């Protein structure tokens, strides 16, 4: 999947990936895609939950060697 | 037009490090999820938002003694379990730093940046003889139970920690 920006959250635990995603998405335009890389397993359910709450779109997740790459499309201005 | 934000309220009654961390963890996440978050600090919870520096001024020997024994301030918070004269707390802080977890001070800063409102309970302040100058400048307001309930009745998430 192609992303307009990438956020590296490896080594960070809940809630930091979510909070940094919130911050990072502010810099993006509506419709752009952010890739978030994390190694805290919580992101697997946290990111879809965050998207559901905020109205942004959860596009999917790739998992490799205990690292998760989740894709979020910005749909709303925070 | 922006839709009305959902509300979350958290009563921080406890003055222990672990409980304060849990409270701020949820508060910052709720704010990041687009909620309007208010934290009410009451009783021992006031310790979380007391200034770290300087003496606490209060009148009367009982209050002076209380505030001496219960100095508070984010840097003095202890674990609710395994404090072991400070050693357990020191170790937990060290482990958390190693895992790059945010400290309570960092979480307070994050919370403020995300728009979380911090409210100190005036009744507890009165009982303990604490003035507004006893608290960190991040505190937004000083209020009572009616203010909390006014927010909580509109809240979809209301916690007591």
Describe the structure.
The complex is a heterodimer of chains A (78) and B (161). Chain A has a single domain, classed as Translation Initiation Factor IF3 (2-Layer Sandwich), CATH 3.30.110. Helix content of chain A is 31%, strand content 33%. Chain A has 2 helices and 4 strands; from the N terminus they run βαβαββ. The termini of chain A are far apart. The model of chain A has no long low-confidence stretch (mean pLDDT 94). Chain B is α/β, with parallel strands linked by helices and 161 residues long. Chain B has one domain: Hypothetical Protein Ychn, Chain: A (3-Layer(aba) Sandwich), CATH 3.40.1260.10. In chain B, strands 4-3-2-1-5 form a 5-stranded parallel beta sheet, sandwiched between helices. In chain B, α1 links the parallel β1 and β2. In chain B, α1 packs parallel to α4. The N and C termini of chain B lie far apart (35 Å). At the A-B interface, α1 and α2 of A face α1 of B.
């Amino acid at each position: 999947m192609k992303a307009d920006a990438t956020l590296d959250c490896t080594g960070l635990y809940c809630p930091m990936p979510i909070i940094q995603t919130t911050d990072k998405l502010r810099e993006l335009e509506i419709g752009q895609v952010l890739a978030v890389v994390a190694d805290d397993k919580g992101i697997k359910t946290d990111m879809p939950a965050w998207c559901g709450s905020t109205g942004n779109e959860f596009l999917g997740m790739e998992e490799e060697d205990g690292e998760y790459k989740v894709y979020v499309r910005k749909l709303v201005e925070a | 037009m922006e839709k009305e934000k959902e509300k979350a309220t958290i009563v921080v009654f406890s003055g222990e490090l672990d409980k304060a961390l849990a409270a701020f963890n949820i508060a910052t996440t709720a704010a990041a999820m687009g909620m309007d978050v208010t934290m009410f600090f009451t009783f021992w919870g006031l310790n979380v938002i007391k200034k770290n520096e300087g003496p606490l001024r209060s009148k009367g020997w009982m209050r002076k003694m209380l505030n001496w024994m219960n100095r508070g301030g984010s840097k003095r918070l202890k674990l609710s379990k395994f404090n072991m004269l400070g050693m357990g707390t020191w170790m937990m802080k060290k482990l958390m730093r190693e895992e790059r977890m945010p400290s309570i001070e960092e979480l307070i800063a994050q919370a403020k940046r995300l728009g979380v409102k911090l409210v100190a309970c005036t009744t507890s302040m009165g009982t303990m003889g604490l003035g507004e100058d006893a608290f960190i400048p991040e505190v937004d307001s000083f209020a009572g139970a009616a203010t909390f309930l006014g927010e909580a009745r509109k809240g979809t998430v209301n916690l007591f920690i």
